[in-house]
Amino acid sequence: MILWREVGQQLRHAVPKTVAGDMCLAPSRRYLSHSTTSWKTGVANSNQWNSSTRRSLQSPWQGWKRTQRCFSATAQAAHGHITPPKPGEEINVTFIDKDETKINIQVAEGDNLLDIAQANDLEMEGACGGSCACSTCHVIVEDPDMFDKMEEPSDDENDMLDLAFGLTETSRLGCQVLMNKELDGLVVRLPSMTRNLQASDFEDKKK
């Protein structure tokens, strides 16, 4: 009986008191498993039993703290990142801004017009982040022959182009135009205005 009373006292002193959000259940269960094991092994000396009890009370709780997993988050990559072209592999593209100023840029294959424009501080918004869900990266291809060399626009792109200001027969979304060797010398014009309408605006109205 005295032995079990000592166990109760050890529990009251060693197990931490709970506060809001603390997890004391796991340590107490671990203690019971340790103490039961110690009792079954028949430790004769009470001092030895007390020392093993202290270890069983302390180590599970400390071990639980050590096994807590850290949370980390990686910052989202900023839009407008482009890859510098390798020597001899440059592709030329020209933007004509709202002031009729021509900006000639050499880019790498695979970069899209939205990223190129934003990386060079041109006025192209890209409100949806290049996910083909708005029309704010609308551009007008100056040469119809160059327009024909591009891949056909998807249904999603055509839906967003219907919302674009100043839509023409050679309009495209900058985020959907990927540069390649065939588009070397491409010239695109930035419209005088943009409409910041996104697909989500119409989804809210349907609800």
From TrEMBL:
Its cofactor is [2Fe-2S] cluster. One of its GO terms (cellular component) is mitochondrion. Residues 91-194 form the 2Fe-2S ferredoxin-type domain. InterPro entries: 2Fe-2S_ferredoxin-like_sf, 2Fe-2S_ferredoxin-type, Adrenodoxin-like, Adrenodoxin_Fe-S_BS, Beta-grasp_dom_sf. GO terms for biological process: P450-containing electron transport chain. Pfam families: Fer2. It comes from the Eukaryota. Transmembrane segments: none annotated. GO terms for molecular function: 2 iron, 2 sulfur cluster binding; electron transfer activity; metal ion binding. Belongs to the adrenodoxin/putidaredoxin family. PANTHER family: FERREDOXIN-2, MITOCHONDRIAL (PTHR23426:SF65), FERREDOXIN/ADRENODOXIN (PTHR23426). This is 2Fe-2S ferredoxin-type domain-containing protein. It comes from Penicillium alfredii.
